[in-house]
């Protein structure tokens, strides 16, 4: 072991400045994005994200033969709307976000590596935001590919008319709307699962309860519907999906309310996460 | 003007309970710069004290300050403090260099600064050659050293080291102790827990002995030993005429036992006042021409203090 050979007299980073916080968020983001994409837990995320794309690829030939005429693009839109809301949004994005965001803190507790962050001169709120943004980056990239890939395979099955509809026609706006809903889902579900991962030792149980709550959302009275993420996302769907004969009908929330509403909800949940993490103790042995 | 507490690690009536289980109870301490060792058996509260110092856990009662900073202001606190914990785990997939540099970037250093500091820390723990290998492929000793490097990389004023010598080979142990001594000489606080008593004895300026969550003694080893009046000091005097010395030592009331060594070239005594005995010994040498080869306190060390205070039933850990 060597003794110091030279002095490094760096100025310590200036405390409390926005520039420092941004730099720290950036450093946390780089570390976490790497873990989200390269860690062993990423494998399940890749499988989850790939499932609808592979499903659509397998079905595209069959769908193409059934709805292959230009006049059936409307039918394809309804098929995708149902597939998107039923499979991609409510299941794939939901569980993908659950897996990613719950593991941001819980995974590090299991791996016994969270203390390295807690022993750094970084505000714990900054840590919450750095980790949250890393989850947003990972899930947005993956589920953008999932959503876009599924759309592509469906409309490829319709031939040139389908590609034209998606590339230059009204399908382009719909595709952007679906992508927007996917991003908002990552933002909203991400915050919810981040906080669940901070509060619960076994977060799968509350995650399943949340899934149940989101799943039965169409049965809930209008007031309760609003305490969910899916209500706001459902309102934004470019192609309305009927909720069935047992649904409690509620006025869809317009986009100018649902988007800020979801963002405010996210901010409140992140504030709760910040409150929690300030009081968090590291006792791996007790986990 | 600097306050005294600006230079101390202070525990004020600190207790920590894990539910109903006692971690530490009513600990009041002021720790000065230098090397302070925490010693005690498993479950005595050493790691709890270290985790309290660094804010990884919060006290149930009382207050802990390090150089007058509190851990609930991490931006200030962890510029001054480095903690090499006992958790032998690392973020997956990183090399030694990436591990050190990544967390320096989290501190807020620029890329160039983080890189330079990381290399310096790796140099100090002699891990330059393994810098670009994955930490997961390191041996136990190398993992211990990379954790040490991570704790010292930002140049803290206070270093808290939980069993830092574990897993190191004898050469690395000796080099690490040398590094600790050097850092202490530079004015740093080093708080070290170790179960190897003779090494603690060798490197520590003072010790804190813990048992069942209580501080049972603190101070420098000799001072602690001197205060243990119920355990008379044991001294072995190697000399040519132990019988002459034995006849004289009972002039002192404080001498409670004298036994001639079986090779007839030494006297073993127990005394409650070692200083008075040494004065007497000087007189005997002058008066009777006693030829003294050596005088060695037998239980004036941490091992003995530990045995007396904590007992042989508690294995040091």
Number of strands of chain B: 13
Main sheet summary of chain B = 6 strands, mixed
What is the molecular shape of chain A? globular
Judged by helices, strands and strand pairing, the structural class of chain B is: alpha/beta
- Name the beta content range of chain B: 25-35%
Strand content of chain A: under 5%
**Which sequence of SSEs, written as H and E, runs from N to C of chain B?**
EEEHEHEHHHEHEHEEHEHEEHEH
| Structural category of chain A | mainly alpha
**Number of helical segments with 4 or more residues of chain A:** 11
| Rg of chain A computed from alpha carbons, rounded to a whole number of angstroms | 22 Å
Number of helices of chain B: 11
Flag low-confidence runs of chain A: 2-7
Name the overall outline of chain B. Answer: elongated
Largest sheet of chain A: none
- Estimate the mean pLDDT confidence of chain A: 86
Helicity level of chain A, as a percent range? over 70%
Helix/strand layout:
The complex is a heterodimer of chains A (287) and B (317).
Chain A: H1 18-38, H2 42-66, H3 73-111, H4 115-118, H5 124-156, H6 159-167, H7 170-199, H8 204-215, H9 222-225, H10 230-235, H11 255-278
Chain B: E1 9-18, E2 21-31, E3 34-39, H1 46-53, E4 61-66, H2 74-80, E5 81-84, H3 96-107, H4 111-124, H5 140-152, E6 158-162, H6 170-185, E7 189-193, H7 197-203, E8 206-211, E9 214-219, H8 221-226, E10 233-239, H9 242-249, E11 255-260, E12 266-271, H10 274-288, E13 292-297, H11 302-309
Parallel strand pairs in B: 3-7, 3-8, 5-6, 6-7
Antiparallel strand pairs in B: 1-2, 1-4, 8-9, 10-12, 10-13, 11-12
Give a structural overview:
The complex is a heterodimer of chains A (287) and B (317). In chain A, helix 3 packs antiparallel against helix 5, helix 6 (159-167) crosses helix 7 and helix 7 packs parallel to helix 11 (255-278). Chain A has 287 residues and is mainly alpha-helical. The two termini of chain A are 36 Å apart. Helix content of chain A is 72%, strand content 0%. Chain B has 317 residues and is of the alpha/beta class. Helices cover 36% and strands 26% of the residues of chain B. Chain B is elongated and about 75 Å long. Chain B starts with 8 loop residues before the first strand and ends in an 8-residue tail after the last helix. Chains A and B meet through helix 1 and helix 4 of A and helix 2, strand 5, helix 3, helix 4 and helix 6 of B.
């Amino acid at each position: 072991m060597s003794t110091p050979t030279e002095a490094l007299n760096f100025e310590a980073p200036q405390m409390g400045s926005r520039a420092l916080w941004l730099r720290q968020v950036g450093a946390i983001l780089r570390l976490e994005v790497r873990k989200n994409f390269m860690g062993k837990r990423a494998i399940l995320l890749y499988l989850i994200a790939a499932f609808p794309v592979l499903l659509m690829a397998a079905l595209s030939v069959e769908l193409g033969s059934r709805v292959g005429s230009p006049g059936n693009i409307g039918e394809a839109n309804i098929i995708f709307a149902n597939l998107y809301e039923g499979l991609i949004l409510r299941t794939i994005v939901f569980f993908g976000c659950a897996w990613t965001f719950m593991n941001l803190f819980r995974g590090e507790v299991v791996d016994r590596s969270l203390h390295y962050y807690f022993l750094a001169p970084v505000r714990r709120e900054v840590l919450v935001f750095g980790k949250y943004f890393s989850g947003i980056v990972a899930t947005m990239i993956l589920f953008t590919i999932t959503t876009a890939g599924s759309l592509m395979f469906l409309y490829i099955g319709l031939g040139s008319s389908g590609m034209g509809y998606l590339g230059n026609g009204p399908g382009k706006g719909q595709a952007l709307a679906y992508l927007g809903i996917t991003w908002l889902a990552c933002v909203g579900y991400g915050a919810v699962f981040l906080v669940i991962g901070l509060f619960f030792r076994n977060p799968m149980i509350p995650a399943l309860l949340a899934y149940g709550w989101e799943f039965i959302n169409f049965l809930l009275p209008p007031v309760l519907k609003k305490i969910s993420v899916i209500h706001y996302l459902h309102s934004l769907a470019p192609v309305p999906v009927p909720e069935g004969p047992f649904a409690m009908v509620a006025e869809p929330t317009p986009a100018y309310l649902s988007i800020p509403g979801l963002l405010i909800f996210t901010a409140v949940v992140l504030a709760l996460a910040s409150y929690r993490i300030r009081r968090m103790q590291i006792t791996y042995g007790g986990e | 003007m600097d306050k005294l507490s600006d230079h101390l690690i202070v525990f004020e009536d600190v207790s920590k309970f894990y539910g109903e289980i006692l971690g530490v109870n009513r600990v009041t301490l002021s720790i000065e710069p230098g090397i302070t060792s925490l010693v005690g058996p498993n479950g005595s509260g050493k790691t709890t004290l270290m985790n309290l110092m660094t804010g990884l856990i919060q006290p149930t009662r009382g207050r802990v300050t390090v150089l007058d900073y509190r851990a609930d202001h991490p931006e200030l606190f962890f510029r001054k403090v480095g903690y090499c914990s006992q958790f032998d785990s690392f973020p997956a997939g990183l090399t030694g260099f990436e591990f050190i540099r990544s967390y320096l970037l989290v501190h807020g250093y620029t890329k160039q600064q983080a890189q330079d500091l990381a290399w310096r820390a790796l140099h100090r723990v002699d891990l330059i050659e393994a810098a670009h290998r994955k930490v997961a492929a390191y041996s136990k000793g190398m993992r211990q050293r990379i954790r040490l490097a991570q704790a010292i990389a930002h140049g803290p004023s206070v270093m808290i080291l939980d069993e830092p010598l574990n897993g190191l080979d004898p050469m690395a142990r000796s080099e690490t102790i040398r590094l600790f001594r050097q850092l202490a000489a530079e004015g740093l606080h080093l708080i070290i827990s170790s179960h190897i008593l003779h090494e603690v004895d060798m490197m520590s300026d003072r010790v804190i002995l813990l048992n069942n969550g209580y501080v049972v003694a603190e101070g420098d080893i000799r001072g602690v030993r001197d205060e243990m009046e119920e355990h008379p000091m044991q001294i072995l005097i190697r000399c040519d005429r132990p019988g002459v010395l034995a006849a004289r030592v009972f002039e002192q009331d404080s001498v409670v036992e004298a036994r001639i060594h079986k090779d007839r070239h030494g006297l073993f005594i127990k005394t409650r006042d070692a200083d008075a005995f040494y004065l007497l010994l000087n007189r005997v040498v002058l008066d009777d021409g006693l030829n003294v080869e050596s005088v060695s306190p037998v239980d004036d060390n941490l091992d003995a203090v530990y045995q007396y205070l904590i007992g042989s039933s508690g294995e040091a850990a």
